[in-house]
């Protein structure tokens, strides 16, 4: 029988967060090793439980969640999202503008599939959350990366954005608060991005899944609240702020210049119908999540577990000679830099693989986030302080071998 090959659509698609290194981790686990996974923003395994009231909602509603629902999602859940848009000052959102999905991931892929033709370019931050780049490429578009500036708290570099716009640029992705950098964008930058999008007629794709995971008094501005004359697709969900990543529950809101996008919206509606609907039991948790007690605040305010872990991990990483790390103002990640004058690292994936083999811990190499250097890595600060202290201590020792 001849070799069975994957589709050539996948030739340029890359998703390293769950790539080769993970295969090695799985092999080691099968050999009986315990791996400390600081590679994925998955709160539950680290003792961050889904709020009890959400769990109760799902259990209670299981009997009424047996059938398909409307392909856009349950009315009550979408109504709750609509009310949330009012709190976030997004103007003119109606129930029909809201789509529920199996996590934000499904909705990102769906939106890109509906939107892109082969010559279309989408501006994506570098570093990025790599699903965006993968989804654009899978959908036949071109991912064009714009720089975020490490020297400026990883804020997007406006000049770089401007320099990368061509007649084929269709949309710009803004991930705020950012994964992997933890940056929370200033109002000034956000307004400038909106102005550039207006000048060039770009669709704005706002991934705001970490909008409630904020530290040190950082304020999150919903990008779609800044204009109603542009088309915005805003993405959010239960995976992070409500620690319910396994529920696979997210939403997408279409707002602004909807009247100019009836054709695109028809396309999105068609794709939404083709997958019938999102997981129904998890949709029942959305109304309670958005309207109920926001327990994430207890974790991110001073004295909160996440905040303490961020502080400890950030300090310990910065204490390693040759390592520097911007303090994240949001999300669950640190994105330290390994000074090339100090360390000799040619291949960051190999570094992460060696770390895995020697120390049985997993980080993600910076190059997996579509930056073109080998000097960064992403560390998840979800484990408890004692685990972080031990892990970063062992990482420091490991790194000393790469000193030049
Ligand atoms: N967007 C960003 C920026 C993320 O970090 C993640 C998950 O880590 C997602 C989207 C995917 O979230 P979901 O679990 O809703 O698919």
Description:
The chain is α/β, with parallel strands linked by helices. It folds into 2 domains: 8-49 and 298-402, Aspartate Aminotransferase, domain 1 (Alpha-Beta Complex); 52-291, 3-Layer(aba) Sandwich (Aspartate Aminotransferase, domain 2). Helix content is 36%, strand content 15%. The chain is built from 13 helices and 15 strands. The chain has helices at 20-30, 52-61, 75-87, 103-115, 131-138, 158-163, 187-200, 262-274, 280-291, 296-300, 305-319, 348-359, 385-399, and strands at residues 36-37, 98-101, 121-126, 142-149, 155-156, 169-175, 203-207, 231-237, 250-256, 323-324, 333-334, 337-338, 361-362, 364-365, 377-380. The protein has an 8-stranded mixed β-sheet. Strands 11-15-14 form a 3-stranded antiparallel β-sheet. Strands 1-13 form a two-stranded parallel ribbon. Pyridoxal-5'-phosphate (PLP) binds next to helix 4. Its cofactor is pyridoxal 5'-phosphate. One of its GO terms (molecular function) is pyridoxal phosphate binding. Residues 36-383 form the Aminotransferase class I/classII large domain. Involved in the biosynthesis of alanine. Catalyzes the transamination of pyruvate by glutamate, leading to the formation of L-alanine and 2-oxoglutarate. Is also able to catalyze the reverse reaction. Keywords: Aminotransferase, Pyridoxal phosphate, Transferase.
Task: Please provide the count of β strands.
Answer: 15
Please tell me the total number of domains. 2
| Biggest sheet statistics | 8 strands, mixed
Task: Please trace the helix and strand order, writing H or E for each element.
Answer: HEHHEHEHEEHEHEEEHHHHEEEHEEEH
How much beta, percentage-wise?
15-25%
Shape: globular
Strand order of the largest sheet: 2-9-8-7-6-3-4-5
Unreliable stretches covering 5 or more consecutive residues: none
Rg? 21 Å
Helix content: 25-40%
Function: Involved in the biosynthesis of alanine. Catalyzes the transamination of pyruvate by glutamate, leading to the formation of L-alanine and 2-oxoglutarate. Is also able to catalyze the reverse reaction.
Enzyme class: transferase
Protein name: Glutamate-pyruvate aminotransferase AlaA
Family: Belongs to the class-I pyridoxal-phosphate-dependent aminotransferase family.
